[in-house]
Amino acid sequence: MKIKLVSVPVESQDRALKFYTSKLNFVKKKDIPVGEANRWLTLVSGEEQDGPELLLEPAPMNFEPSMTYQKALFEAGIPYTQFDVADVQKEYERLINLGVKFSIKPTKMGAAKLAVFNDTCGNHIQIIEVL
Predict the structure, then answer these.
(1) Contact between residue 131 and residue 112 where contact means Cβ atoms under 8 Å apart
(2) Where is each VOC domain found (predicted)?
């Protein structure tokens, strides 16, 4: 088995696409209409374009339990997912310069350093560097 696709619920696929591509350097892989204003919208890492895809899932707009879960995680400050980076401090500074808002600044925790930011689409996202 291997991971080919993971999803992140987003309040707006358009806003998420802009944020994840312009700030996080993801690259759009698929953009297929699936009815109404919804799309099968996937991204890949700019560093690993043949790697797993990230689905920007419009579930919060269409499925109440998804919206409730996403909101509860956000209000508790719990990251929905995490992305690995080579240098958390460097990535933190790059994202701060792009206007990204962080709830947790770079913090060493055991054998890792992490930081948490708001993706503007209803999620906290954690970046992590294994030390």
Answers:
(1) yes
(2) 2-130
Encode pLDDT of 20-69 as tens digits. Answer: 999 999 999 999 999 888 999 999 999 999 999 999 999 878 889 999 99
Give residue for tokens 């925790």: 109
In whole angstroms, give the CA distance from residue 52 to residue 12. Answer: 22
CATH number for the domain that contains residue 59: 3.10.180.10
The structural domain count of the chain equals 1
Q: Which structural domain, as residue segments, surrounds residue 85?
A: 5-130
Burial of 2 (0-12, 13-18, 19+ CB in 10 A): exposed
User: What value does the mean pLDDT take over residues 116-128?
Assistant: 97
